[in-house]
Design a protein that fits this description.
Elements lengths: L3 E4 L2 E4 H10 L15 E4 L5 E4 L9 E4 L2 E2 L9 E4 L8 E7 L2 E11 L9 E4 L6 E6 L5 E6 L1 H4 L7 E2 L3 E3 L2 E7 L12 E8 L4 E9 L11 E8 L2 E7 L13 E9 L5 E4 L3 E3 L2 E10 L13 E3 L15 E2 L5 H19 L1
Parallel strand pairs: 3-9, 9-17, 24-25
Antiparallel strand pairs: 1-2, 1-7, 4-7, 5-6, 5-8, 8-9, 10-11, 11-15, 12-13, 12-16, 14-15, 16-17, 18-19, 19-22, 20-21, 20-23, 23-24
């Protein structure tokens, strides 16, 4: 028997339906910019039943991707596609006269076709929020947090992306875990995505919050000479959890020797004096989280020479300037400006 589309107790042969599709201009056009309210997901070659959201079967006609199905048998509250394939996915709407009653999207299930998950999550602290990135070219994506989302319960609160990314989306999710208690509950994040060919992907990731911790980059405050060493003062990022004594960060300093250009790294804040530049990164000292991104390289000026350049704390790591040093630099700047003018 040939595959069929059914409406109520009557049938419409799929090969006739296919002829209609070929004649429809733009029948496969993608028209979603957010997740549809009503949709049905079916595997290829499986059956799917679409329902019009009305009580009566009277005078109901169906449209596919906004084009009428001009067959007497394409009517009634229920429309059943007996064998789903790529040509039959998209928007179905039911009409009475010139009034649209409701619509439903038929989507093709592609679960299991993805080898690498396009979903990655990161928490910059132990606060009540974390971010997730979706890095595939699906056109519409939503995320849900909690077990109820993983089993597709209606109580799931779905989250829309807050930032578009090149080739994906970014989301902000909120949890209720206490940052001070021992973590025993895993976070469950479920993603649903629709591509422009109306293929549907659903996947679930489970992890502990501590497993996705990655602090923002710290701040290099100053470099103070102590004997033949430099004492580097580092501050945690402003986004990190407080108090810092409880949420302790481990820092790693990478520096370049001035004499031979050799690069070394250390977890100590006391480093050799004769270096030309340095940078720093941090991680949670207790759970040994992912390292933060490195700070930009900073040139080091620890002596009195070129001390006035230390006003540019973004580019240079220098001793903390005294009021006298600041006044001296101010006068020097005025003098140099006057010489250039003359």
């Amino acid at each position: 028997m040939s595959p069929q589309v059914q409406s109520g107790q009557m049938t419409l042969s799929l090969w006739i339906f296919g002829l209609l599709l070929i004649s429809l201009p733009g029948a496969h056009g993608f028209n979603l910019n957010s997740f549809p309210e009503n949709f049905v997901v079916a595997k290829k070659d499986h059956q799917a039943t679409l329902t019009c959201d009305v009580k009566s079967d009277e005078s109901i006609k169906w449209k596919f991707n906004n084009e009428s199905l001009d067959d007497d048998e394409a009517n009634g509250r229920s429309l059943t596609v007996s064998e789903v394939e790529e040509a039959l996915v998209g928007e179905y709407s039911c009409w009475r006269g010139g009034e649209q009653l409701s619509s439903v999207y038929l989507l093709l299930d592609t679960e299991g076709d993805v080898s690498d998950s396009p979903l990655t999550c990161r928490a910059q602290s132990y606060h009540c929020n974390f971010s997730c990135k979706w890095t595939s070219e699906h056109k519409v994506v939503r995320l849900g947090l909690g077990h109820n989302c993983s089993v597709d319960e209606k109580s799931c609160h779905w989250v829309k992306p807050n930032l578009p990314l090149e080739g994906g989306f970014q989301f902000e999710l909120y949890h209720s875990l206490s940052p001070y208690a021992e973590e025993s509950t895993m976070l469950t994040v479920t993603a649903e995505a629709i591509d422009e060919d109306y293929s549907f992907l659903r996947l679930t990731e489970r992890f502990y919050l501590r497993e996705i911790i990655q602090p923002d980059s710290p701040t290099i405050v100053n470099c103070q000479k102590v004997g033949h060493h430099l004492n580097v003062t580092i501050e945690p990022p402003s986004s990190w959890s407080t108090p810092y004594s409880f949420f302790n960060l481990e820092h790693q300093i990478e520096y370049v020797h001035r004499d031979d250009g050799a690069i070394e790294s250390t977890s100590s804040t006391l480093i050799p004096w004769k270096i030309s530049s340095l940078r720093v990164r941090s991680r949670d000292a207790l759970v040994l989280s992912e390292w933060s991104q490195w700070t930009p390289w900073k040139n080091v000026h620890a002596g009195k020479k070129k001390l006035c350049k230390c006003k540019n704390t973004v580019k240079y790591c220098c001793p903390q300037l005294s009021p006298e040093d600041l006044l001296h630099c101010k006068k020097k700047k005025k003098k140099n400006k006057k010489l250039r003018t003359n």
